[in-house]
Amino acid sequence: MGFTCTCCGQEHDSLPFAYLMAAPVYWSPQLAENPDNVLGDEFCVIENEHFFVRGRIVLPVRDAAEDFEWGVWVSLSQANFIRMGDVFEDPARVGEPPYFGWLSTILPGYEPTTLNLKTNLHTQPLGVRPLIEVEPTDHPLAVEQREGITLARVHEFAEMAQHS
């Protein structure tokens, strides 16, 4: 499914239904110089004090056959981070209770900011990134997670990604 960009008028061949943030907002390339700082595909640690996990915020798209996903980072307490590491390769991890965390990603198109929204991280089967549930408040992201979005909103996200 393609779309015509309202910003530049260009026709795009496909409409992305997912965007992945490369790192928590607190990460900077200079941090990689210190061995206490690690940015991996699924986990991030800063100064052996701040612990982050990558997950997915899923937004139902009411007028499309697939959901939209934000690939985000959530901070966890050290105890929960260690527990997640302990069960990371265990198929029984889907039985884990949710882990409380703070959203550590600023998503475009939301006012007020998405940074530090309260979340619950739900582990998924092996090979599937955790599902992030935003606290059910009146924040636009929480509302969209509960009520869904339209294809027009997916177009907005695509235009923001193309022209940010």
Notes on the structure:
- Helix content is 18%, strand content 28%.
- The protein is built from three helices and ten strands, in the order βββββββαβββαα.
- The strands form two sheets. Strands 3, 4, 5, 6, 7, 8, 9 and 10 form an eight-stranded mixed beta sheet that branches. It has a two-stranded antiparallel ribbon with strand order 1-2.
- A hairpin with an 8-residue loop joins β6 (50-59) and β7.
- The two termini are 22 Å apart.
- 23% of the residues are buried.
Pattern of helices and strands: EEEEEEEHEEEHH
* Total beta strand runs: 10
Shape: globular
- The number of helical segments is 3
Mean pLDDT metric: 94
Biggest β-sheet description: 8 strands, mixed
Helix content: 10-25%
Report low-confidence residues grouped into runs of 5 or more.
none
Structural class: alpha+beta
How many domains, as an integer? 1
Report how far apart the termini are.
22 Å
Short précis:
18% of the residues lie in helices and 28% in strands. With 164 residues, it is an alpha+beta fold. A hairpin with a 3-residue loop joins strand 4 and strand 5.
Topology of this structure?
Layout: E1 3-4, E2 11-12, E3 18-20, E4 38-39, E5 43-46, E6 50-59, E7 68-76, H1 78-87, E8 99-103, E9 118-122, E10 131-134, H2 140-147, H3 151-162
List keywords for this structure.
alpha+beta; 164 residues; two-stranded antiparallel sheet; eight-stranded mixed sheet; 18% helix; 10 strands
